[in-house]
């Protein structure tokens, strides 16, 4: 699940698109986005044709009847609670939070959701690993 946008979430959107493209050859990937129409337009404007086409296909792909899937929330931990109790949470084998933050401290409100609402948190760099770990997020 990811947000899609040009402004404040542009960096996170770019990361999510590239992560999905990297996983796609190896696992069955779907892209669940906050606003499909807005995301399709943003991807078409900002990504090369082949990558935009892949994202379009992933946004329309369905999960099917497989109960053993991994859900990746590509958002900051402060927004994980928006998905608490949704149908995917109840049926997924694991929920991974995927986040980053460009400062040496994370907001206080992120610790509880990161430790309680997801099974683990993935971060992209050693810097982010140190930042999240020092805040008590393993």
Residue runs with pLDDT of under 50 for 5 or more positions: none
Helical region count? 6
Main pleated-sheet profile:
3 strands, parallel
- Which percent band covers the strand fraction? 5-15%
From the N-terminal CA to the C-terminal CA, the straight-line distance is 21 Å
3D structure, described in words:
With 138 residues, the protein is mainly alpha-helical. The model has no long low-confidence stretch (mean pLDDT 84). The chain has a three-stranded parallel β-sheet with strand order 1-2-3. The chain is built from six helices and three strands; from the N terminus they run αααβαβαβα.
Key descriptive features of the protein:
mainly alpha; 41% helix; single chain
Brief digest:
With 138 residues, this protein is mainly α. Helix content is 41%, strand content 9%. The protein is built from 6 helices and 3 strands; from the N terminus they run αααβαβαβα.
SSE blueprint:
Elements: H1 10-23, H2 36-46, H3 49-60, E1 70-74, H4 87-91, E2 94-98, H5 111-116, E3 120-122, H6 126-134
Parallel strand pairs: 1-2, 2-3
Helix pairs in contact: 2-3
